[in-house]
Amino acid sequence: MSALTLPSTTRVRLPSAGTVLALVVVVLVLVAAIAPGLLIDRSPTAIDLKATLQPPSWQHPFGTDDAGRDLLTRVIYGARQSLGIGLGATGLAFLIAIALGFTAALIGGVVDAVITRVLEVAFAFPALLLALLVIAVRGPSLATEIIAVGIGSAPGYARMVRGQVLAVRQAGFVEAAAALGHPRFAVIRRHLFPNAMRPLVAVVTLGVGQSIVWASGLSFLGLGVPPPSSEWGALLDAGRLHITSSWWLEILPGLVIVLVALSVTALGRTLQNRLGGASR
Amino acid sequence: MTSLAERLDRQLPTTTALVEVENLRVSFGDTEVVRGISFTARPGECLAIVGESGSGKSVTARTLVGLTGSNASVTADRLDLGGADLRHASERAWRRLRGRQVGFVLQDALVSLDQLRRVGDEVAEPLRLHGWGTRRSRPAKAIELLDAVGVPEPEVRARQRPYELSGGLRQRALIASAIALDPPLLIADEPTTALDVTVQAQVLDLLAAAKERGTSIILISHDLSVVARLADEVAVMREGEIVEYGAASQVLQEPRHEYTRMLLDAIPSEHTRGTRLTGSTARVRRPVDEGVPVLQARNLTKVFRGPDKVDRTVVDDVSFELFGGETLGIVGESGSGKTTLARMALAILRAEAGEVLLRGEPWTALTPGQRRPLRKQIGVVYQDPLSSFDPRWSVGRILTDALSTAAHPPSSQTEARQRAVRLLEQVGLGEHHLSAAPLRLSGGQRQRVAIARALAPEPSVIVCDEPASALDVSIQAQVLDLLTDLQDDLGVSYLFISHDLGVIHHMSDRILVMKDGRVVEHGSADDVFERPRHPYTRRLLTAVPRLRPA
């Protein structure tokens, strides 16, 4: 037998133009969230009553609102909260999903049956309705919005986690590790968890984009972060009154939300394809 | 140019050769996979194209039905079927040809048959495509065809779907659809590879009957003994070239090319017992330790409840003893319960009744926690090594992980690495394989890594479940040699499971023959093979394709 190892030629797939564009958008949003001052030197709360409801111009690319505040600045400063809600809600959703999914799949029997039935009932409700329930109980705030969106989207992920664990548990390498005499917990920690979570990495990214949209939706309904926050959904809510006269207050932040959600989703898909290809 | 069908209709004399191929070349991009081969096939004869994986034999078969795919470039000085030149045949011409003049039988009938259609419709498909009969008459013809290929209760089977049929019946249905229009040429690509040996014998008989009727058969196979049963001529392919081509008796009995000789020598059988398959030197056996059996099963029984809520006894009251340095072969067809027996011996699956003793001490009767420290005494090698490795782990990590379960685990990283390298050297690999991902190793190398992992905790027993069945015959020979070498060096015992009687005969000291969960015969290898007592064992032995008449 030739003692040659095949050269590790991982085929380099060049990203498409769409992926590059999506990456640029996501990087810009991350910068805006971490250090908005780098992108723009105005203050999001600086009121200029001489220049209220100005249409987009060179000086104000996104126009100004009814208090003369520059809309682009407000969108940039709103990124932190919007992205924070997206990440926080998705993170929370996954923590819940991992806890429920692993418990159900590993214990099985009655526990599995109960968790699965509860998840199915929760899954039958629209996620937004679940979120509204949480907000109704706790009253609107940033934390509530994260919890609401997180709980709303958890059931779907939990079902996915459970399915993954059940699939990986059947894998040959899990049995091989048990046959070597490794304790059950070590097998879960070293083989089951990482291999079950691997395909979900991409789903997390997809989830962030979706959470941003849901959070904006809740804020638009006045159920999100209270003013004077410039969270994107809140901007939409504020612009609602002037939609007939000042279109930019509604359209431009709306486009930003769409673009960001689209970019995050596109990146998630790319990630999903690549990971899917690598896991054989 | 007249088509073959027209020639046959008008009783024109066909040339003696039905298929004539000269200097056929097939390449995919820059890689040439078939490199200028020539062969002929005659009516009423069988040409076998034999080779290991990657030899180009399947691609060759596909060029004859125009199914190489759009990214292949095919050139030939001559590519004639029944006098018709196929070198520039259009897709439409190929479609007219397939089914009517060339029948194609693929390896896996479960993939080749549409799962959602009834078997009868599937068999009648080529009839419909080529305008044979009417909507009314075709179903009857399909039943007639199923009957002709020996499908019992063809009326019932024709209404079933492929997944409701056993592997053997599916393969027969596929053959029925290939011979539906009685094509003068039948190409069979590994038609029996997935089948049990008794079913394989039936399928080969079926092909032989078609040959008797005057059909020309091109049989593609990796298995020289299957070929011996049917072929009149044999072409041995290696890396896209034919290295030896001649009458079957000559190629199989007096091979001229060293590659053919190597392939023939690598086939494990009763003749290879006690020798190594590569190099043919004798084994230096350690004496078997007849004291306390290292592994002993007492009245093991396993019952599975099926989806229809009916309990089925998969393993029924099985007992065996395995002594130190000995190999106990367990042979049986699919569904005989041999893998379930192995999983119970490993205490991965709980038995309904009976128990297993490890070195005379309770083993399956222990709690999982009590069993864990004893696991190092019993290792396992699976049929598919790749799925038994965590896809994220390198070979080095797999081995150091296994070493950590040894009685004396390595105390430092350096020691772990040294011991991992020593394991790799024991199985014929080297230090440079430490960082390799199993996915990037060849099938044989992967199985070597799996054996190294099983050896790491220094077990006294290794359960080998079809350890070489997925490998090419030359690689299988290397892996089997490795296992016997390790036994001669270390005195390890094997519980060796295989469906392949040749492999079992080559490897085993004693043999259990299983059928439907029961042990039907039990004895020394010589007794079981030379003086079989049970009718099933006799049936198995006559079904085994042999290179030479026994």
UniProtKB/TrEMBL annotation, chain A:
Q: Which residues cross the membrane?
A: 20-40, 83-108, 114-137, 200-225, 245-267
Q: How does it sit in the membrane?
A: Multi-pass membrane protein
Keywords for the protein's UniProt record, in alphabetical order: Cell membrane, Membrane, Transmembrane, Transmembrane helix, Transport
Principal location: membrane
Q: Which domain of life is it from?
A: Bacteria
Note the Gene3D superfamilies from the entry. MetI-like
Start and end residues of each ABC transmembrane type-1 domain: 79-268
PROSITE patterns linked to this entry: ABC_TM1
InterPro entries for the chain: BP-dependent_transpt_permease (IPR050366), MetI-like (IPR000515), MetI-like_sf (IPR035906)
Q: Say which family it is in.
A: Belongs to the binding-protein-dependent transport system permease family.
Protein name in the entry: ABC transporter permease
Automatic annotation (TrEMBL), chain B:
Q: What's the protein name?
A: ABC transporter ATP-binding protein
Instruction: Provide the taxonomic classification.
Output: Bacteria, Bacillati, Actinomycetota, Actinomycetes, Micromonosporales
Question: NCBIfam families in the record, alphabetically?
Answer: PRK11308.1 (NF008453)
Q: Return the similarity comment.
A: Belongs to the ABC transporter superfamily.
Ranges of residues in domain ABC transporter: 19-264, 295-541
Q: Which Pfam families match?
A: ABC_tran (PF00005), oligo_HPY (PF08352)
**Which Gene3D superfamilies did the record assign?**
P-loop containing nucleotide triphosphate hydrolases
Source species of the chain:
Phytohabitans aurantiacus
Keyword terms, alphabetized:
ATP-binding, Nucleotide-binding, Transport
**CDD domains associated with the record:** ABC_NikE_OppD_transporters
What top-level branch of life does the organism fall under?
Answer: Bacteria
**GO molecular function terms listed in the Swiss-Prot or TrEMBL record:** ATP binding
